[in-house]
């Protein structure tokens, strides 16, 4: 009988293993601290939603909905009806659905954030995977430009906290629906007059979503796009005032930015302010965070009209950027490594180890197997390789005396002293790593 075929992970869906997983945990902890500083609260939504949520919220002619969603028909119920479901390609729509469903805005606006996996069926490449992870911050129920600026400042705060220095901020204003309609008509007229220069994707979008043509990555169309009518020229007084107020806060906070009139973002729900944080350190996948205002999405999903603004950052890209910028992410190591000369010492040592752990000391216990625990020399090698600052030696002499030998492996290496085996609380704090 032949051996079973080994099963590998799905292409573009990656395992996150130690020691890399420690970098993820560290980043998530830093995000939680930043979110707490701005009074944002955590929300966790399902990774699967009704497909209609995304077609209605994101736009039926966006790349995400047209090409990239993992969608399927669920098993029929007892009446033969089957739901159309999709793995979430982003989480703003799901968060808004949760806010509407649970009436979270009944007593005023909410500042919320999320972390988790998203799914898009696209060609895997550096910083772009089929299962990828996003962290997002959303402020719902607030219509003022100061909240747009606050969301941007939250991201700037996070970059500083993480030690990321090389980024630039680009802003644009998409205006309101009537202003976008006027701009849309001008775009169609312009591109129709240059139809021979449009690629297949642009021709397909010309009448369904011409604004997305401005976001083309085709080098042959750059000159044509650069000459297209600008949305900023179609903005009314209120939209201009909103955009200027956002910029005024950023200038006052000393945040550098540039205005990119071609910045439209890839989803249809945005209005007024849109923005992206971009780095030149990651090649083509340079956008590490993007977002904007989406004042009409809550109503589109079935809630009472309410304004909202938010952003999402790509976790994989930010982690890559940390590496490119040489940011040192601390790896977790045990405070102490327990060395056990034989199986008979385990029952005596275990209560001491448990008491130390209860006092906040991270202890790794040496484990053997059928062959036994191994020699003291091999255990000391593993203790040193673990990164622990101390070795705890539970020898027969120590146990007989009701003691354990604590040996320094790093600072003052080799120094050792005996401590009480039955009262580890008296010496536990000395084992803890400095904060």
What does this structure look like?
This protein has about 425 residues and is of the alpha+beta class. The protein has two domains: about 250 residues, Bira Bifunctional Protein, Domain 2 (BirA Bifunctional Protein, domain 2, 2-Layer Sandwich), CATH 3.30.930; about 100 residues, Rossmann fold (3-Layer(aba) Sandwich). Strand 15 and strand 16 form a beta hairpin. Helix 1 runs antiparallel to helix 5 and helix 5 runs parallel beside helix 9. Pfam families: HGTP_anticodon, tRNA-synt_His. Keywords: Aminoacyl-tRNA synthetase, ATP-binding, Cytoplasm, Ligase, Nucleotide-binding, Protein biosynthesis. It is an enzyme of class 6 (ligase). GO terms for molecular function: histidine-tRNA ligase activity.
Biggest sheet, spatial arrangement of strands:
1-5-6-11-10-9-7-8
CATH architecture of the largest domain: 2-Layer Sandwich
- Total DSSP E strands: 16
- Kindly identify the CATH topology of the largest domain: BirA Bifunctional Protein, domain 2
Along the chain, the helix and strand elements come as HEEHHEEHEEHEHHHHEEEHEHEHEHEHEE
Give the termini separation: 56 Å
What number of domains? 2
Binned, the helix content reads 25-40%
For CATH, the homologous superfamily of the largest domain is named as: Bira Bifunctional Protein, Domain 2
Rg from C-alpha positions?
A: 28 Å
User: What is the molecular shape?
Assistant: elongated
GO molecular function: histidine-tRNA ligase activity
InterPro entries: aa-tRNA-synth_II, aa-tRNA-synth_II/BPL/LPL, Anticodon-bd, Anticodon-bd_dom_sf, His-tRNA-ligase, HisRS-like_core, HisRS/HisZ
Protein name: Histidine--tRNA ligase
Catalytic activity: tRNA(His) + L-histidine + ATP = L-histidyl-tRNA(His) + AMP + diphosphate + H(+)
